[in-house]
Each structure stands twice: as C-alpha cells, then as structure tokens.
Design brief:
The chain is mostly helical. 75% of the residues lie in helices and 0% in strands.
Length: 197
C-alpha cells in the first residue's frame, strides 16, 4: 500500500526549513539544496511541493507570519495593567534565538517586498492583523470609565516602537540583549500609553 503523505504538513516542513536557511544565509544565499537538506528531503521533493525557489521563499515568509499570528492567538488571557501589557508586547521582539531567526527572515523580505506585490500583501496582512490584536489588547488592558483613546492609532504607535527596537536588535544582537530590548521598549511606550510603567 502506498505511503500517504500529508501535503500541507510536508509543505510546512519545507517552509520551516527555508526559514532556518534564510535566517542563516539571507535571501540571496538560500539555495534549494540547502532547504532540502534542512528539511531532510531531496531537492526533487522540494520542487515537487513548490514550483520554484521564489515560491519556497514566499512560503518561508508566510510561515514566519503564521508563527507570530499563532502566538498572538494564544494571548487571550488578558489582564489589566501597564507592566503586564509591556511584558506581553515585548514577546514580539527578537528576544530569543527562534524569534531572532524569524525577525531576520522578516527583515530580509522588507527590501524585496517594496517592489513585489505578493510579498507586500503578506506584510500588509500581518501588520493589519497585528494592529487588530494590539488594538484589542490596549483597550482591555488600559480602558477605564474615564479613558477614551483611539486604540487603533495607539496600536500603530506601538507597532512602530516594536519595529524600531526589533531592527536595532537584529543588526546588533550582542549589543541588544533581551533585557535592553525590553527596557528600551518600555521607555518608548510609557509616553504613548500615557502612564508611568
């Protein structure tokens, strides 16, 4: 009896392998044979599930986005309080090895996405979803009967802070350990949130 292969699971394995390769070698240095080796399959298997290298690279970006969205969907235990809010927002920074790899992949696609409609669409979708999640998180964490804020505008400001700290940390990982990232983000968010953290 022929072996049944879960096509989606295999594509996900290859996309995850591509994330690893891109994080290590960049977009230009990512070769299909390296992706195949990282996935534990042949190059022929990669081209069986993906039409070409560009499709593999796009799948890697989509996988990074999926991981972040999955993390966000697990953030349902919302508690009021600025300190906990900043701690939660800090989870989106490159504060550990896996997050650093994902950020390197995300940033590798930034320049390319400017002129590539499918990649730009992936970025836009991610940012829109992140904005929705942060808008809800801010409202639940900070709203009181006396407060009335434009939560979505505040979410955009928070995203800009996350991006700024994340880029610095990716460019200088030794100089920007998790503690410095968290401290800098907290300092930036304090005036935005309108309270003392």
């Amino acid at each position: 009896m022929p072996k049944v292969v879960d096509l989606d699971a295999r594509r996900l394995e290859i996309a995850s392998a591509a994330v690893t390769v891109i994080a290590h070698s960049g977009l230009e240095g990512a070769r299909l044979r390296d992706v195949a080796a990282a996935a534990g399959v042949t190059t022929g298997a990669v081209t069986h599930y993906f039409l070409n290298k560009d499709e593999v690279l796009e799948a890697a970006l989509a996988e990074v986005v999926r991981r972040y969205l999955d993390r966000m969907s697990m953030d349902q235990d919302l508690q009021p309080g600025v300190g906990q809010l900043i701690d939660r927002i800090s989870r989106y920074l490159p504060i550990n090895e896996r997050a650093q790899a994902e950020w390197r992949v995300w940033l590798a696609f930034w320049g390319k996405a400017v002129n590539d409609e499918p990649l730009r669409a992936i970025h836009q979708e991610y940012y829109e979803r992140l904005r929705e999640v942060l808008t809800h998180l801010l409202e639940v964490s900070l709203a009181t009967p006396e407060t009335s804020h434009e939560w979505a505008v505040m979410a955009d400001q928070v995203i800009a802070c996350i991006d700024g700290v994340g880029v610095r940390a990716c460019l200088d990982p030794e100089g920007w350990p998790a503690e410095r990232q968290h401290r800098t983000l907290a300092t930036m968010l304090t005036p935005i949130l309108g309270v003392v953290a």
